[in-house]
């Protein structure tokens, strides 16, 4: 069931072939996700409404994961894609035990509803501040490779590897 759900989220993002600019898309999805999390903190007594907000939060987290991983793969050099992706995965999943410790400690001090509210506000604030920077909004900036399409030209990658040997 979980795999079907992940496939649906990937389909939602994959339906639109080309998000431009991708940085703006990431920040807008993050803002919407933060709003949904804040609503979970605002209406904890309404179970169906909370479940609806959490449902849509799950959809937006899946969409965010697809777009962020796409950005990482597009803007990393082809010869370093594996190393960059391993760092990205380490950063997103490797710190989960630390996050569990911090959240467990915070839940002894504040309520879960306040934690959701504060998390949502932090997400919206950070994404909103990030939108102020042109390099984040416009991912087609000077840090991007000249020819992004070459990153996915597998024949070119094979040739490059053979030439390096």
From TrEMBL:
Task: Kindly list the residue ranges recorded as spanning the membrane.
Answer: 21-40, 46-72, 84-107, 113-133
Topology with respect to the bilayer: Multi-pass membrane protein
Signal peptide limits:
none
This protein's GO CC annotations: plasma membrane
Lipid metabolism among keywords: no
Q: MF terms per GO, please?
A: transmembrane transporter activity
Q: Which domain of life is it from?
A: Bacteria
**Per the record's keyword annotation, is Zinc included, yes or no?**
no
Where does it reside? Cell membrane
Spell out the SUPFAM superfamilies in the cross-references.
MFS general substrate transporter
Alphabetic keyword roster:
Cell membrane, Membrane, Transmembrane, Transmembrane helix
This chain's protein is named MFS transporter
């Amino acid at each position: 069931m979980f795999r079907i759900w992940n496939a649906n989220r990937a389909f939602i993002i994959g339906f639109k072939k080309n998000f431009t600019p991708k940085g703006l898309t990431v920040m807008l999805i993050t803002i919407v996700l933060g709003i949904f999390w804040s609503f979970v903190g605002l209406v904890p007594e309404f179970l169906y409404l909370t479940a609806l907000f959490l449902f849509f939060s799950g959809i937006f987290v899946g969409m965010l994961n697809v777009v962020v991983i796409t950005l990482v793969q597009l803007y990393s050099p082809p010869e370093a894609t594996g190393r960059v992706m391993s760092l990205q995965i380490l950063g997103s999943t490797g710190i989960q035990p630390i996050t569990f410790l911090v959240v467990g400690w915070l839940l002894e001090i504040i309520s879960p509803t306040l934690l959701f509210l504060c998390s949502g506000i932090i997400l919206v604030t950070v994404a909103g501040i990030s939108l102020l920077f042109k390099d984040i909004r416009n991912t087609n900036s000077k840090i991007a490779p000249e020819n992004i399409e070459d990153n996915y030209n597998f024949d070119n990658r094979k040739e490059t590897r053979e030439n390096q040997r």
